[in-house]
Amino acid sequence: MHIVLLSGGSGKRLWPLSNDIRSKQFIPLFRQNDGSRHSMAQRVCEQVRHAIPDAKITIATSKAQVSALRSQLGDLVDISVEPCRRDTFPAIALVSAYLHDVKGVGCDEAVAVCPVDPYVEDGYFSSVHRLAQLAADGAASLMLMGIEPSYPSEKYGYIMPQDKEPVSRVLSFREKPDEAAAKRYIEQGALWNSGVFAYRLGYVLTRAHTLLGCADYKSLFSIYDRLEKISFDYAVVEREKNIGVLRYAGAWKDLGTWNTLTEIMEEASLGDVTMDERCRSTHVVNELDVPILVMGGQDLIVAASPEGILVADKAASSHMKPYVEQISQPVMFAEKSWGSFRIIDVEEGSLTIKVTLNAGHAMNYHSHARRREIWTVVSGSGTVLLDGKERAVGSGDIVDIPVGMKHKISAEEHMVVIEVQIGEDIVKEDKIKWSEEVVR
Questions:
Q1: CATH number of 416's domain
Q2: How many folded domains does the chain comprise?
Q3: Does 440 score more than 60 pLDDT?
Q4: Domain containing 86 — which CATH number?
């Protein structure tokens, strides 16, 4: 079967661990048996492979997240890249066309769509498998998975089913209600709308042709930036009469805020953290190379990363987004397909970055029109390519790259490089990519 994982997010609600490139699904929070940590995206993909071994996973995402996905998941997933953000209906139309035109998936085959970042048990994906089977069998034009509510939440929309059977017809939907209305809905058998659904591929392609004017991958990709921003719920779900719902009663959490995230954290602190014995219900995450000491903290979130430092009451942390949006600075840390970078100093006319390259990986061959770069190899070994000429580099070597010179560094083993950029206009747009020509 085919599973599409939607990977979006603006990186505001879990600041400072998240940013415009590193959304919450990429934060390594879950400890593994070997002591390493995995992200939500890695955890979900492992759960899919465990519950549905033959599932083919495609992640629909923006260009900004491709490097992080490749770094964390390698080639274990396919990626459908959106040229820009256009909400969930264009994204699902594009990935559906990608599956049909690029991957050769037939119109009668079932596709299940899920967020990439829920906190769930393995049984959740067994239910997703069942949902796709129902769609393939024609149980309804569109099959939804509804979550059995554990409390009258005001955060979620509600699905109103015809009855309380495991599989039921959907009668209507309700937007996020107040608590009293939520209680009434639950008494009537209502379910939380989880954003999980399944369909035969041809169904969405037909809807795309009707609403967007085309349904082939090449055409959708070429006009994508001109498509209306519209959600799948509004464009399709609310207008479809033949909808079924499958009940899911297992554990399910939307880890959208610090408050909900700390509910599933296995430890009270991550990183170099010391808390005294008076701390109560306080969680600390430290990604910096300096220690954090918390004394007498009560119901607090403390988080530190290259992006900044957060100290917040747990309840107040749910309302941080408008304050984070007022913070203006470049992205200070990001994972790339070849490793990662971290900005360690910003001055007028210069930028200093710690670059980490994974063994066997390399940066793109590129040049800059308005800045000079100086690389100092701290550890590891590899090669540099400068205007077509290649040479070996290792610990202690310094590479001076004038303005306009084409350059690339490749790591034969794990490498750490300090990169100093010097120029009056240091911006990410000042980058020209080139195809490689090595002069021997």
A1: 2.60.120.10
A2: 3
A3: no
A4: 3.90.550.10
| For residue 311, pLDDT beyond 60 | yes
Q: Model-level pTM?
A: 0.84
What separation, in Å, do the N-terminal and C-terminal C-alpha atoms of the chain show? 48
Evaluate whether residue 333 is within a structural domain. Answer: no
**Is residue 438 domain-resident?**
no
Alpha carbon distances (Å) from 62 to 10, 119, 172, 399? 11, 22, 32, 33
Q: What is the pLDDT of residue 377?
A: 97
What mean pLDDT comes out for the span 207-215? 94
pLDDT at 438 over 70: no
Residues 296 and 364 placed together within one structural domain of the fold: no
pLDDT of residue 11: 64
Compute the Cα dihedral for 199, 203, 209, 214 and give only its sign: positive
Cβ pair 83, 95 in contact under 8 A:
no
Task: Tell me what pLDDT residue 259 has.
Answer: 87
pLDDT for residue 318 is more than 60? yes
Query: What one-letter code names the amino acid at 258?
Result: W
Same domain? For 291 and 353 the reply is no
Look at residue 355 and tell me if it is in a domain.
yes
In a domain? residue 332? no
Range of the domain at 285: 267-316
The Cβ-side half-sphere exposure at 109, using a 13 Å CA radius, reads 14
